[in-house]
Amino acid sequence: MYGSKCKSLVEITLADVNPAVSLHVIGTDAGGVLNLPQSLQFLIKQAALVAAPSRLAYAPSSGQQLISTDHPAAAIEAIAAALATSKPTVLLASGDPLWFGIGRLLLQRFEPAQLCFHPAPSSMQLAFAGIARPWQDASWISLHGREPEALAAELQKRPAALIVLTDPNRGGAESVRLILRASGLEAAYGFWLCEQLGHPQQRLQRLAPDEPLPDPLDPLHLVLLLAEPPADIEAAGLPLFGLEDGLFLQQADRPGLMTKREVRIQLLADLQLPAQGVLWDIGAGVGSVGLEALRLRPALQLWALECRGGGAALIEANARRLGVQPAGVLEASAPEALAQLPDPDRVLIGGGGRQRAEILAAVLTRLRPAGVVVLPLATLEALAELRPLLVQSGCQVSITQHQAWRGAPLADGTRLAPLNPVLVLRGFRP
């Protein structure tokens, strides 16, 4: 059993430093060895070999061999040689050695039963302790050796709290800011900069989007992103269309599930919205397309349908934020609920799943002359199923495919990160 030879800190005795027991891997905080409990300090004093990163500045006891290096491979080789000659050995590390620490490399070289870990608080624990916030709902991502665009994908999940382990060689905290801005989520997250965690000079500060990073910025830093309640917005000050994704309220259990800005703009163009008439938004989600349509054409009658629980309340909340008034918002399923609605001039079918063909057939029996129906699709199979229905109903059919990219910062520049491609099937009834 892994760790079976480890004892609790209060149970450690001289027998435990016998090399037959294990290699003791001891995590430290910023205070170093002096902050450790006496039981662990005892282990260190009894070791024949102590390996430690140079930043800990450990002073060896008389007759004790010290390997002071910031190169894990060198420390591991020294440890292997010591264990081969039955020398009691201790390895000092920072924080929790098994959380982005040397523990992973040790387990690649030694059997788990040889290792006994004594963790100190990790940087993630220290960050949340510093701002006095529970962290059971937190996620994390490491950008060490990775391009920061990985953060953009993680943010699409809209985590409640996200620890970002930065890589100063690839932009550090500034890269996190750029990704937030590119994702349209600067207003959705509080940005906490955490420097020298666990050190007497540790600094945790919340920075506004336009507030500069401290200069100098300590290289030992991470970023904590905390989701914030949506701020009130002034609808009159918003752009006419093409609103940022982060302006829309979303379902907490389905974060990021909405029509993205680039696709939304295209769908609004394909609908060719009239000044007046009836617009059906079927599978409305958070209501983004239909509500933006009302900002463009206030005299339209928007009927939004969303079958997911809480969908109607969410759409209505977004409507209030944007200063528009739908004719009706129904938490109901199509095609059954369509009988309650007036005949449409424009229809967007954004949902429906396996019932999409049945929904489209029902729509085509109700679509007025000169009407338009638009369907954003993700698969060729859906296109093959639905296009014949439009053709058979006498519609003029067009098909387009749209692919958008968003700039994502790299260590030394910017690359274009793709969004999911979307097929748009459009039918016009002459």
| Spatial order of strands in the largest sheet | 13-12-11-14-15-19-16
How many domains make up the coordinates?
3
Number of helices, where a helix is a run of at least 4 consecutive DSSP H or I residues: 11
Distance between the termini: 74 Å
CATH superfamily of the largest domain: Vaccinia Virus protein VP39
Mean pLDDT: 88
What is the total tally of β strands?
A: 19
Relative strand content: 15-25%
CATH topology annotation of the largest domain: Rossmann fold
Give the helix proportion (percent range).
25-40%
Alpha-beta classification: alpha/beta
- Report on the biggest sheet: 7 strands, mixed
Supply the CATH class of the largest domain. Alpha Beta
Order of helices and strands: EHEEHEHEHEHEHEEEHEHEHEEHEHEEEE
- Low-confidence runs of at least 5 consecutive residues: 8-20
Please compute the radius of gyration using only Cα atoms.
29 Å
Shape annotation: elongated
Secondary-structure blueprint:
Layout: E1 23-28, H1 38-46, E2 49-52, E3 65-68, H2 72-84, E4 89-94, H3 103-109, E5 115-118, H4 123-131, E6 138-142, H5 149-155, E7 161-165, H6 172-182, E8 189-195, E9 203-207, E10 221-227, H7 261-271, E11 277-282, H8 288-296, E12 300-305, H9 311-322, E13 328-330, E14 346-349, H10 356-364, E15 372-377, H11 380-392, E16 396-402, E17 405-410, E18 413-418, E19 422-428
Parallel strand pairs: 1-4, 1-5, 2-3, 2-4, 6-7, 11-12, 11-14, 12-13, 14-15
Antiparallel strand pairs: 7-10, 8-9, 8-10, 15-19, 16-19, 17-18
Helix pairs in contact: 5-6, 7-8, 8-9, 10-11
